[in-house]
Amino acid sequence: MKTRIIFGIGLAVALSSSTWAEQPLDPAQVGSFDGMLNVCREINPAGISAYNKLRETLIGQQPDGAVEALTQTPEYRRAYEAARQKSADEPHDKVLKECTQLAASLSPRARQGNRRK
Length: 117
Fold this sequence. Notes:
Elements: H1 2-16, H2 18-21, H3 27-43, H4 48-59, H5 66-71, H6 74-89, H7 92-106, H8 108-116
């Protein structure tokens, strides 16, 4: 799970960069990321705002209806379900810990703390 969270953060950074801005989103990548984030939303409701912000960063500005259309593709749905299944196969406590750590690392307090170092 930790590898997938790190992958997700890297994916968010990559997709929000200017090189990706001109290219359409990959349904499988977004599906995997959404699957992981939704598991985290369910298991750690306190981090919902952080997970939502991360998803907004990942998706960026898209034409009206583009994201909705993307979520209806078979590639997105397969990747989404695969990500959820991988999380279901992990011990609950491990998933909770990693989701909590992800939310904490995305919080404004965590970013302020990093600046002080």
